[in-house]
Amino acid sequence: MRKLSLTLLFSVCLSIVMAQTERQIEVESAVVTTHTTTIKGKKVPYTATAGTQPVWNEKGKPIASLFYTFYQRTDISDKNTRPLVISFNGGPGSASIWMHIAYTGPVVLNIDDEGYPLQPYGTKSNPYSILDVADIIYVDPVNTGFSRIVDEEVDRSTFFGINSDIKYLADWVNTFVTRQGRWASPKYLIGESYGTTRVAGLVAQLQNSHWMYFNGVVLVSPTEMGIERGEPIHTSNYLPYYAATAWYHNALDASLQSKDLDAILPEVEAFTINELIPAVVKGGMLTAAERDAIATKYALYSGLSKKVVLEHNLMIPTNFFWKELLRDKGMTVGRLDSRYKGFDNAGTGSRPDFDPALSSWNHAFAPSFQTYVREHLKFKTDLTYNLFGPVHPWNRTNETTGYDLASAMRQNPYLHVMTQSGYFDGGTDYFNAKYNHWQMDPSGRMADRLTWKGYRSGHMMYLRAEDLQTSNEDIREFIKKSMVAPDMPAKYN
User: Which GO terms describe its molecular function (predicted)?
Assistant: First the structure.
C-alpha cells in the first residue's frame, strides 16, 4: 500500500514539473523596447512592441494567441493622421518574418545584393523602411511564428480555411486597432503571396462586418485570389514569365537576347493575349499549320524547343519549365525566384527535386530572426518560431477574395490597390497578377486606383538590393497618393 502511494506521489510530482516546464505562449503579453534608425538619411526614433493578443470565441473565452511585432515612430504625436500598415505573409502557414526582417521594417537581413545568405547571420538597419511614413504591425496567424491555439477543444476549422482565416483575423485586427486608439488613422493592409488572398478578403470583411475603412491594400506577389480564368488562360499566362526567365539565363534566340527585358515583355504579352490563348482555346480545331506557327513562336519566346511545346499541346506546366530550361547544362531554375539555380540527383524527370530559391531563403531568415527577436526585441520564449506551421487541412472552398476586394473598392472611393510583382517569380507570376486587375475592374472605372509595379527579381523582390529601395519607395508613394486631403468627401463625381 505504501509502495503504491509513493508511486502515485512521484507521478503527481512529475506531472507538476512537466506542467511547469511545458512550452506555452502567454495569451497576452507585451515587451517594449526603444530604438533609433536612419531612413533616407534622417533619424527616426521608434518603439518596438513584441507581444501576444488573444483570439476569443463568441463567449469571450481565449481560444488562441497571436504573436505580433508593432513598430511606432515616437516623434509624431498625432495618431489620427499617422498611417497604420498591417502586414501579413502567406503560405497558408507562413509567418510574417519575410516582410518583417527583409522588406518594410526597420531592420533587414545580412544578405548579399542579390539575396543570397551570408555569414555571420544577422540583421542590419534598413535605410529604406517605410517606418518614416507609417507605423507597422506584423501579425503571425495561428500556428505560425509563436502564435498558438490555447484551447485544445476548439475545432481547427475555426482557423484553417480561406474564409475562417479572414473572419477570426478581422476580429483580431478590430481589437488591436481599438486598443491602440487607431480608428481615425489612415489604414493599410499589405500581404505577400497567400497573404494577398488574406488581405483581399480582410479589407472586405473589416469594411462590411466591422465598419472599418481602409485607404489602401498592397498585394505583393499576389495569388489568383479566386478570380476565374480557366486552364487555357491560366497556363498560357505563364509565357511572359517564361520569357523573362529565359532572358535572364541567356537562353533566348540571339534576336531576342540582345534586347532589354522591357522591350521583350510587351511583345510576348501581346502574343499571349492575341494569339496563344485563342489557339489553346481552339484545341483540336487548330490546323497543323496553325499549331506549328504557334509552337514556333512559343519556343522562340520561352527558350524551349518546339518539339517539347508541341508535345505539351502548347501548354507547358511550370514544373516542367523549371526542369527543362537549363536541362542541357545539368541545372534547374527556382520556382519562387528563377534567377536561382540548383541541380537534381538526376537530369531526367519532369520536375525539380527542390526549389533552390526557397532553400536559400530559409538558410538566411531562420537564424537571423531567432537572434533578432530574442536579443533585440527582448521577447523570451522556449517556443519554436514556425516559419511554416501546421495548418492543414486548409479549406479552400468558396474563395471570392479578388471579387470581394473589387467590391470593397467600389463601395469605398478612398480605397486604392497596388500590386507588386517580380518578373522572375514562377510561384505567383507577374502576368497573372496583371490579369487580376483586368478582371477586378472590367469596366475600367477604377483604373486610377489600381497600380501595378514590376521588378527584376522574384517572389520576394525586396531581397535584391536595388529592388529593396525601389519597392519600398513605391509603397511610400502609394501611401502618399492614397492619403485623403482634410474634409475631402468620399464620393464619386
Answer: serine-type carboxypeptidase activity
pLDDT at 487: 83
Bridge partners of 333? 341
> What's the Cα-to-Cα distance from 119 to each of 112, 116, 123, 363, rounded to whole Å?
10, 10, 11, 10
> Please, which residues have CB within 8 angstroms of residue 284's CB and are 6 or more apart in sequence?
none
188 in Cβ contact with 84 (< 8 Å): yes
Domain boundaries, the chain: 29-227+363-482, 230-355
Q: Tell me, what DSSP letter sits at residue 450?
A: E
Q: Which three cell numbers stand for residue 49?
A: 512592441
Q: What grid cell was written down for 369?
A: 530572426
CA distance linking residue 273 with residue 290, whole number of Å: 16
DSSP 204: H
Backbone angles phi, psi at 368, to 5 degrees: -65, -45
Confidence of residue 252 (pLDDT cuts 50, 70, 90): very high
> What is the rounded distance in angstroms from the CA atom of residue 317 to the CA atom of residue 231?
11
**Is the pLDDT assigned to residue 21 strictly greater than 50?**
no
Pick the CATH number of 29-227+363-482 from 1.10.3720.10, 3.40.50.1820, 1.20.140.10, 3.40.50.970: 3.40.50.1820
pTM: 0.93
Dihedral, CA of residue 275, residue 276, residue 282 and residue 284, to nearest 10 = 120
Of 418, 436, 422, nearest in space to 479 by CA: 418
Under 8 Å between Cβ of 248 and 426? no
pLDDT average, residue stretch 476-487: 93
197 pLDDT higher than 60:
yes
CB atoms within 10 A of CB 469: 14
End-to-end CA gap in the chain = 88
- CA dihedral of residues 356, 361, 367, 371 (deg, nearest 10): 180
Q: Round the average pLDDT of the chain to a whole number and report it.
A: 93
pLDDT of residue 138: 98
| CA atoms lying within 13 Å on the CB side of residue 80 | 2
- Closest Cα partner for 437 from 188, 237, 275, 205? 237
